[in-house]
Structures are given as C-alpha cells and as structure tokens.
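Appendix B, example 12.
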Amino acid sequence: MRHFDHIDAARRKHLFYRHPRPFDRHDDPAVLAVALGATLYCPATRPTLATDIERAGQRGVMSLVVCLEDAIGDDEVEAGEANMVAQLGTLLKRGADVPLLFVRVRDPRQIGDLLRRLGGAAALVSGFVLPKFTAAGGGAFLDALEDAADRTGQRLLAMPVIESPEAVYAETRAEMLHDVARLLAKHRPRILAVRLGATDMSAAYGLRRPPDLTIYDIRPVAGVICDVVNILGRADGTGYVVTGPVWEYFSAGERMFKPQLRQSPFDAQQAAPLRQRLITADLDGLIREVHLDKANGLTGKTVIHPSHVAAVHALSVVTHEEYCDAADILGVTGGGAMASSYANKMNEAKPHRAWARRLMLRARVFGVAAEGVTFVELLEAAGSR
C-alpha cells in the first residue's frame, strides 16, 4: 500500500518532489506508526462493514479500527463480534486489498477468542486497540496479545489508548503515566503507537469540545496531552508515536467564530469552492487542529468520517521547504548554525536534529511536495477519487 495511490499518476508527478514510498503490514513498526495517518474508526455492528472497509481503502484510508468498545452499545457486543467475524471472512473470500486493520476490544479475553473465531481472516488483522489503558489493567491486555501472537505465529501490534480518569486528574496523572511507560517498555517491540482518547478525557470534567475550538483550547485536556507527550512521546529513544485525538464533527451547525482558513491560499489556486466546502463541513477546525497536533509532537489522527481523511493526509505531506531544512541539518556533523535554503530562518544542526529525523520518516511514507505545491493542491487531489 502507498499513500495517495488513489490519485492518477500524472497528477502525482506534478504534486511530489519525492513520492511516497510503499509499505505493508509487515514493515518496521516505526514506519507503520507514521504511515497510519488518519485512522478511521468504524462500529463493528455496521451491516455493510466489509464493503465499507473496501471503499475506505479506495478513498485513501490506510488504517482502520473496527470498534467493539464505545462505538457500540453494551447490549450490542455479541452481535458486533459476530458481525465483524462474518464481514472479515467476506473480505478474505473477496481477496480484497484492505487498509491496516485493528480491532478495539473491551476485555483482554476477546483478543484470543476473536482471533480463533476469525480463522484465516485473522491474517487481515494487524493488531488491537487497547482502551482505558492503565498500568494496573493494561498488563492483562498485553499478556493476552503476547499469548495470541505466540499461538498463531502472527505479528500482532498494540495501540494503547490513554483516556482513563487516572490519566486525567492532576493528582494521579504523572505517577500513572510513568507506570504506563515502564509497562510499555517491557513490551516495546509490540507497541505501535499511543493513542489519545480526548472524548473520555473531556468527559472526566463534563466537557465537550465545540466545533469552532480545537482540543488545545480545552485547557484541562490540553494539559493531559502535554503530559502524555512529555512522558510517552520523547525523542530520546524511550518514546513512542503519539497520535492526535479524534475530531468528532462532520457537519457544521451555527458558527460563533470566523472561519479558520485564510482565503488567499485558496484564491491563488482558484479553489474558493473547496474552501467553502471545508467551512460548511466544519473541516476548517480539523485543519487547524492537525496543525496544532503536529506542532505539539503528535503524528496522525483518529477520525470518525471518511471526509476527514484527505485533510489529515494532505497536511502530513512534507513541504519542500521542510525537506530542504531537514536535509541541510542532517548533512552537517559537529553542530553549528546556518541560514536555511529558503533564506528565511536559522537551522541549528544539534537541537533541530531529532526534528529532522522524524520529518524524514514522515517524508518516506507521505512524500515531499514539489516546490511551490501548496496544501490546497494536495487537499484537492487527496479528496478526489
């Protein structure tokens, strides 16, 4: 699989200075963690789940979670499990090309049971999303995953979700996150990424983020994200990819604030209708939040609607300017400072080196935009089919 492969070759040639490189489910987890991009959540109870997964892949979705937890009712778990098993079996029979598939479970015992029931279709599953993850309860999930991997001979990756009250409340947060860090370190080869459950975090305070504010405007939750990145997202070799929290809106209601997209970039590309569509669907808020995710050290994002995917992926492409900066920084040994190739900033070889390495990994899977190609062009292309 490869990002932007749903765009025709001639258009890709125009858009990219360096094209995205292919990857598959057996790649290095460090590559897959960045390649996840916009991870689409889908309830396990959907009657058209197999077709939905196929169509998502055709629209550029590279990672998808079939959810047996909060996305379905407590009385729907048994039906959701049965439906998921049947629908993945259908995908196997079709020989369909599917995104990286993960299952969000409620209970550790579901992991081995579902893999057994899936039979050959278990090969379509790349791993499991582990909800409400704490050091106290998370060990049982990871042990169940280890046992299932040993029994099946299949590599199974884990994405724990930080969202429990212990992770949110100030008096327990630091100790809890350090305990989680020690637990994850024992299972490091199996940890693909750490996910953030911003909806549950907000619920701890009886809050819900409105569509014209980003999660970073909700200060109690922003503080949690800061601490998660501080403890679990470090660039010193001990950290993990931490993914951006869910954007839960896909249709605009009454707006209180001005749109968050400047008009001039769209006018320059004669793309005013695209700007209006984004504003109408409240995607200007998503775009701003993805910018803030990246600035705060998060990679990729949880999404709940296919219309969100193009924006996340377009913003994941490395700009030509960023690539030139990173190449210059990594080309220097012994430190020192230099003017950037674009002559608009200072690059420092030592402090900017970790940033440059991370950026080059993102360039590998999302590509580097051609000089002069803007986010607007990438978004228009990524949203086309």
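The chain is about 45% helix and 10% strand. The CA atoms of residues 87 and 320 lie 42 Å apart.
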